Amino acid sequence: MELHLNTSVLYEGIRYSIYWTSKAAEHVAANYVDPLHRVTHTEIVQLLKRARYKIPIQQEKRPYFFVFLTGRASMVWETYVYLIPPLNNWPARCVIVTCYQSNKQQYRALFAV
Length: 113
Prior knowledge:
Layout: E1 3-11, E2 14-21, H1 22-30, H2 41-49, E3 53-56, E4 65-72, E5 75-84, E6 93-101, H3 105-109
Parallel strand pairs: 2-6
Antiparallel strand pairs: 1-2, 3-4, 4-5, 5-6
């Protein structure tokens, strides 16, 4: 599996370098035709950097799994990532999984005016 370095995002004082796996990058490109997934790789990075909420998803099998929530153009976007702390001589990294418009009421309510 290849990792592609992009840029970085800050979370709780730690700078995480943003990486794409080839599989995730292909997933984003393949799903671009779906209106709920119509977002480019560059836009996903912008959504990560502008996220208002960064929520850990506590799962035993995925301890570093998070959803970043961003409001943009009257829509809420969910971006799922792994925030992996420095391990085994690797720097802290943010590995993108997927991104799409949210249809979850609890997330949309966070951005209601």
